[in-house]
Amino acid sequence: MEHDLTTGSGRPRDAEASPALLEAARRLVLEKGYAATSISDIAAAAGTGRQTLYRRWPGKAQLILDAFAEHASDQVDDLHAAAPGPDPVREFLRRTFRALDETGPALRSLMAQAQLDPAFCELFRQRFIVPRRAALHAVLAQARDSGSVPADLDLDAAVAALFGALWYRLLLGEPLDDGYAAALAGLIRAEP
Amino acid sequence: MEHDLTTGSGRPRDAEASPALLEAARRLVLEKGYAATSISDIAAAAGTGRQTLYRRWPGKAQLILDAFAEHASDQVDDLHAAAPGPDPVREFLRRTFRALDETGPALRSLMAQAQLDPAFCELFRQRFIVPRRAALHAVLAQARDSGSVPADLDLDAAVAALFGALWYRLLLGEPLDDGYAAALAGLIRAEP
Amino acid sequence: MEHDLTTGSGRPRDAEASPALLEAARRLVLEKGYAATSISDIAAAAGTGRQTLYRRWPGKAQLILDAFAEHASDQVDDLHAAAPGPDPVREFLRRTFRALDETGPALRSLMAQAQLDPAFCELFRQRFIVPRRAALHAVLAQARDSGSVPADLDLDAAVAALFGALWYRLLLGEPLDDGYAAALAGLIRAEP
Amino acid sequence: MEHDLTTGSGRPRDAEASPALLEAARRLVLEKGYAATSISDIAAAAGTGRQTLYRRWPGKAQLILDAFAEHASDQVDDLHAAAPGPDPVREFLRRTFRALDETGPALRSLMAQAQLDPAFCELFRQRFIVPRRAALHAVLAQARDSGSVPADLDLDAAVAALFGALWYRLLLGEPLDDGYAAALAGLIRAEP
DNA sequence: CACTAACCGAGACGGTACGTCCCGTCTTCGT
DNA sequence: ACGAAGACGGGACGTACCGTCTCGGTTAGTG
């Protein structure tokens, strides 16, 4: 997350720099990929100096995490709010898969970065993984109450299995389609 | 995979160089981590020139993939051969978790590299993921035949869910313990 | 020649880096010879990064040209100022030969580099050859006015012959001694 | 010079390899220049292995010296044989300049190499410089006898001055034209 | 209304890894 | 013992980023 160390004194930070950097980062990563996008590229595209970026984020990964986390939090709310239909778990997965069509490559890069930097890993977990985990947990709890999943289902394990399966295919470049969503949802559906 | 362009003519490649490079790579990565291990380090530790490495592998990631894939294939065989006990799925997961205690960090790095290089991703899938997937599939098929998992279980989906859950926690730095193995195995156990 | 692209903006170049690089280059070339001195060696000896060198000179040859041209221009002034005695041409040659005892090997390397790189050749000509040529020309003009060389001497040809003879022996590893200076000076001395 | 260490036993050397290497060396150096021509290039162009080259010459410079020395020795004889006319020195210089139109660049490279390798320097001197020096010496001696240069001319110094002036301009990329030949010849012409 | 502190861009800094190139040697097989 | 072929250890090269530092200049709030 962008860090703000303003003490009140001195010239205030340029309010336009952060959005410009976030947008430039998002655009360049989507265009050229994470690895091919350098810090210098992002700062130049945002029309700012490199130091301005470092003053607000510790590095490339954190900036790009912010650049893609914004959208993600909106989506999590959407998913949480509406998970209707006869098979809400399947519906949740389908919508999540759909959202990854655009942001998937960037998320893969962030997950990659999390492997190389433990501090970033924890940040990524808190900002990205945990909220979504909570959302799916809620969906599953609701499904359990409505009887569409077994009453004794281990919800935490089910969340790990479903999101794990999602990331598993995403990270390996395998397709995330409706059939996959249905098959995964089928794994934990209540036996009638 | 190491590429071998032997045409028969000319001086043959040094048979000791490849093992030396693989072992040096494996040792250095386990000691210092993936990112902190450079190509020069590996070549020097193996007592070879840098060009000898480039002659056999396209880069660091492919070499290290080979360095860890060797051992992996042995382990896959072990796991496949013996998955005994009342809950073979749980046992399989437990053993797999145990094996990751040592190699986990390196595998995380390889998975990270797979996100930055599509060609390497495919290689990693073929050399690492698919064999293990087959092993778990066989375990599940056996379990289905012996009645310890439901007869109508979607084996492919179950494999994705179990291995997905494994990678999910591994990549996020969360613990892979016996309790987790039991919980995941419980998800797909037959309801008696 | 060192190139200075200062635009006024940004951090100014370290004023100590260039002298340090020049001195390190000069010292290492005199110690180990031109070919045995690498760019990395020079940068390390100067306590600077390699890129700092490349930011100021296109390569090794240009840096070393500068490293030896500095001193050379001083010497040229010295030679120009004082060319006394009954045979000023011979005296000029003797002093020039003497100065080459130390710098000769480095100059040979620079002349060698000039053969491999036309751009460097021109630079070498302008920075090294032309100034010395002018100095000798002045000495000869003075000698002509004082009657110690023939009045109708073709000064340009004489300069070429004298410096040519100097380089000819220098480049072939033949001795540049007082006798040689006297013999060359004798070629163009006025017949009494 | 190509060295021949055959002992009589074993397979005799391929008689075609040496000419092929010499011709390939000559062609490539004239086409691409000395520095841009690697040992591998020459061997490949000659259809031979690199070791065959090293078995016959110590390195690139010696091979190329041989490649260009062949022609040179013919030319030296030509020059020696016929130096007619009213000003034989000028004529000798003019012809020598003319011959350098083609081989000049290669000779410059050889002289460059002589600066980096003392052993080659001596070889170059013996194979190239000394014979030509003798030829010019003979021309000057003849001219002295015929009265076209002063009787007390120091022939060795004159040779050094004339060839030195030649190399001086050649190595600096300056033109070797008839005017220059005339001016140099004029320096040592007898005053009538 | 000046001062001052933190900002801004630009870009140089030391450092490190990369992948390429060539060197001169060595090692195979076939002739 | 030669030949072609090509791998070997070694080392320099020039490039690309990294994260930091240092300029001159700008822009608020404070004294």
Report on this structure:
Four copies of one chain form a homotetramer. The first copy, chain A, is 71% helix and 0% strand. Chain A is mainly alpha-helical and 192 residues long. In chain A, α4 (60-81) packs antiparallel against α5. Chain A is elongated, with a radius of gyration of 19 Å. Chains in contact: A-B, C-D. Chain A binds a DNA duplex (31 and 31 nucleotides) through α2 and α3.
User: For the terminal residues of chain A, how far apart are their CA atoms?
Assistant: 46 Å
Radius of gyration of chain A: 19 Å
Structural class of chain A: mainly alpha
The greatest interface here is: A-B, 44 and 43 residues
Note the main sheet of chain A: none
Give the SSE order of chain A as H and E letters: HHHHHHHH
- Report the principal-axis shape of chain A: elongated
Total of helices of chain A: 8
Q: What oligomeric state is this? A: homotetramer
The tally of strands of chain A reads: 0
**Portion in helices of chain A:** over 70%
Give the strand content of chain A.
under 5%
Average per-residue pLDDT of chain A, rounded, comes to 89
> Uncertain runs of chain A with pLDDT below 50, 5 residues or more?
none
